[in-house]
Amino acid sequence: MAHVIPTLPISLPGRIIGGQEAQPHSRPYMAYLSIGSESGRHQCGGFLIHPYAVLSAAHCVAVNITVTLGVHSIEKEERSKQKFHISHWVIHPNYSGDTLANDIMLLKLKPKAKLTKRVSRVPLPRHNERVKPGTICKVAGWGWTSTTPDKTSVLMEVDLKVQSEDICEKSFKRNYLRESMICCGDEDGKKSTSRGDSGGPLVCNGKAHGIVSYGHRNRIFPKVFTRVSYFEPWVREELRKFALQDLPDS
């Protein structure tokens, strides 16, 4: 079996490998997750899909999660920032921490986010909608800039190409599931997501088709993303439950 690890959050914030700084607030759906655990504070990405919901990777879950929207720099004061202490989240019931199958999580925001020019939602694909191999997609995050912990405080972005399923099946064997995962990356090994980018969106044709999930320990190509369209019915049902929780008692 191939030795794989999730693109786990770390305590040192960094950035996308081989990318560039994003134009400030050009990705208003991005969410910065500050995560507290026994080993200290870590970070992940996420993205706003509803005024009361952020989508991220299940392997980012911890007891103490703070979500900040409207962020470009995680260190500077920005009037656009909206911060939420998360008390309720839902992990997919079939999530596996061993194989990272079904690596998807929904976080409930309370109160709701205030939608502005710098805080807005990203559209999701239809159920089982697919992107073709060769499609160029964008990923953004605050993860490492290289395989060593070079760091920055600003949002970085990179273009990655959707690869054929065969590439990830060959690389990750039975851990790669065609129905629920997307194979992506840069064949030249110069551009990638890295630690701290987990949970962020893979945006293709204006929709969040993937969630940063995992890759090999010592190689940056290829990377595996959770396929959002496969989970669209589950996401829709959990959003409905979130809405019902806020209804006044009858």
UniProtKB/TrEMBL annotation:
The keyword Hydrolase is annotated on this UniProt entry: yes
Alphabetical list of PROSITE patterns matching this protein: TRYPSIN_DOM, TRYPSIN_HIS, TRYPSIN_SER
Keywords: Disulfide bond, Hydrolase, Protease, Serine protease, Signal, Zymogen
Any Pfam family hit: Trypsin
PANTHER family tied to this protein: GRANZYME B, KALLIKREIN-RELATED
Gene from which this protein is expressed: Mct1a
Lipid biosynthesis among keywords: no
Protein name per the record: MCT1A protease
Domain Peptidase S1: from-to ranges: 16-240
InterPro entries, alphabetized: Peptidase_S1_PA, Peptidase_S1_PA_chymotrypsin, Peptidase_S1A, Trypsin_dom, TRYPSIN_HIS, TRYPSIN_SER
Organism: Pampusana beccarii
UniProt-listed GO biological process terms: proteolysis
UniProt-recorded Gene Ontology molecular function terms: serine-type endopeptidase activity
Domain of life: Eukaryota
